[in-house]
Design goal:
Length: 392
């Protein structure tokens, strides 16, 4: 019952699979006129990459939100948390430069490396801030934190103490990942591991340099407002004082920004969960109908028919009078038997809250003709029927 399918296996010399598919699709569309009923579909690594990118669009924002929350729980300060997170853009500079130098394109493996790099940045940033805080508290305990010169001395002492541990950390990470980045391409899994290690190496190097240079400056700017004497720095204000926010607003500004960011993250997560949990109202006409005993079974989908990929299918059971009736437990499965492979999907259907309506989630791994089977058992007895469906 399946359509005739011709597989064309392509070995490409470039690592930019997405770019290759876009260019090849454009050229095929310009040079080939497909007869009715014929179409072309890309599968393999390209299909897996697209599915992985859809997952990463959710994973990356939640990863950053989790890092922010954990840092805040550790520092108990929104300002300190933002200072630590400054290491992330510092590291991205080196990560993307090294990717560009080695000719690597954005891929799922590179994204995994960037996620791991964000965790390393948070760890090294916390330690750097810890050394600066220790120096600050030491000078305050000794009654030596009175003016800007004292603050400079404290920050210098804390930053200098961090140089050797920072170099040791960077060397351990770099020398541990260099064999992976330089591994021969003929080794199993080398293509993936090289792209994970590359952004981590480049990012750790630039993050270390910029943390040692910029963190102390930011720390001085932040701590100087707590000094009793700030006479060393009295430059003419660029912005008139009347246009500046009040001291109270400036004091609470980091918390306001953090609250806004957390709210955005929660809204993003809630909207994602809502869209996943609540299926769209299906109003399209049935794309398949079968009769079992005195029951009429109708299948409906938002797109009007089965689509390649994930599908939400609404199943209706109606009696001879056209009324919706509850049939108990419903199971909906699809399968495509091809030479050398068997693809299946589906499972138990869920009740929608309306008697006689069920919702099932099935995934058609490729376009073509599929065999569907519905079985049920409950107040109306047991029964099953088969459908011939076409996924596009």
């Amino acid at each position: 019952n399946g359509k005739l399918v011709g597989f064309v296996f392509v070995d490409i010399t470039t690592s930019d699979i997405d770019g290759y598919v876009r260019e090849a699709s454009q050229r095929l569309g310009q040079s080939i006129q497909y007869p009715p009923g014929y179409y072309i579909q890309w599968a393999g690594q390209f299909q897996y990459m697209k599915e992985a990118w859809q997952r990463l669009k959710v994973v990356i924002p939640f990863t950053l939100l989790i890092i922010f929350v954990l840092l805040y729980m550790n520092t108990r300060s929104v300002t300190k948390t933002f200072i630590v997170l400054l290491a992330v853009p510092f590291s991205l500079v080196g990560a993307f430069w090294l990717l560009w130098l080695l000719g690597y394109n954005m891929s799922v493996a590179v994204a995994v490396g960037l996620i791991a790099l964000a965790g390393l940045d948070a760890e090294t940033g916390v330690v750097m801030l810890l050394y600066l805080d220790h120096a600050w508290e030491k000078f305050r305990a000794e009654k030596r934190m009175n003016n800007m010169r004292d603050l400079h001395d404290a920050v210098t002492e804390g930053a200098v103490q961090r140089i050797r541990p920072k170099i040791m950390t960077v060397c351990a990470i770099v020398f541990g990942l260099l064999p992976i980045m330089w591994s021969p391409a003929t080794q199993a899994g080398a293509d993936v591991m090289k792209r994970i290690a590359t952004p981590m190496i480049g990012g750790v190097v630039t993050s270390a340099i910029l943390e040692l240079l910029i963190y102390p400056v930011i720390y001085v700017i932040w701590r100087r407002r707590e000094l009793p004497d700030r006479t060393e720095e009295k430059p003419a204000p660029i912005v008139p004082p009347a246009l500046l926010p009040s001291q109270r607003v400036r004091h609470h500004l980091p918390r306001i920004i953090a609250t806004i960011l957390i709210a955005i993250g929660l809204i993003y997560g809630a909207s994602f969960v809502w869209h996943k949990a609540s299926a769209k109202k299906i109003t399209s006409p049935p794309f398949a109908t079968q009769t079992v005993n005195d029951l009429t079974i109708k299948l409906m989908a938002p797109a009007g028919q089965l689509q390649k990929g994930d599908n939400n299918v609404l199943i209706e059971f109606r009696d001879s009078d056209g009324q919706l009736v509850d049939v108990g437990d419903v199971n909906f499965t699809i399968d495509m038997n091809m030479p050398g492979m068997a693809m299946r999907g589906g499972g138990p259907a869920q009740k929608t809250g309306t008697a006689g309506e069920y919702r099932a989630k099935v995934k058609a791994d490729m376009a073509g003709d599929w065999n569907a089977k519905i079985s049920f058992g409950g107040p109306r007895g047991k029964g099953e029927t088969n459908f011939s469906l076409s996924a596009r």
